[in-house]
Amino acid sequence: MKVLKWAKFKLAVTPDSLNLKGLNLANGILTLDWNDKTPTFDFKPHTPDCYYTYVSAAPYNPRCDSTHAQKVLDALSPDEQTIFMRTIAASLDLKTVRKHRGREVRALLMHGTGANGKDTLREAVSVLLGGHGMGG
Question: Residue 48: is its pLDDT beyond 80?
Fold first, then answer.
C-alpha cells in the first residue's frame, strides 16, 4: 500500500495540467493562445512537460492538400458548415470560448437518414481527437 501511495505521489499530475489548449498531433502539439478574442496558433514539438490523455493519428502539415477535407465539408450546406467549423474550433479551448460566448457552444447533434455524411464527420473529428469522446 505504501508503494502505491509513493507511486501516485511521484507520478500524479493535476487535472489542470492535462489536455492543454490545442491539439496533440502525431508529430507535435498545435498550441492555441489568445490575443483578446483572436486565437493564434503555434506548432511545438512534444515535451514531457505537456500531458495529454490522447494523441491524434494526424500529423501537422501546414502545406497539406485540403481537397478531401473540402469534399467532406461540401456535403454540408453553408450554414451547417459554419456551425460545424465553429463547434470543432471551440473544442480546442472550450473554457476560453465559453468565457466570451457563454454556454452557446454545446455539442453537435447530427440528424438524417441514409448516407448524408454524419459518420464521415464523426470519424474525421475522431481522428483529430485520438479516437476518444465520440459517440455514434
Answer: yes
CA 59, CA 76: separation in Å to the nearest integer?
25
- Per-residue pLDDT for 128 more than 80? no
- In DSSP notation, 81-129 reads HHHHHHHHHHTTSHHHHHHHHGGG--------SSSSSHHHHHHHHHHHT
**Which residues is 35 bridged to in the sheet?**
38
Query: Contact 122/108 with Cβ under 8 angstroms?
Result: no
**HSE-up of residue 98 (Cα within 13 Å, Cβ side):** 9
- Best mean pLDDT range from 54-58, 64-68, 85-89, 92-96: 64-68
Residue pair 103/111 in contact (Cβ under 8 Å)? The answer is: no
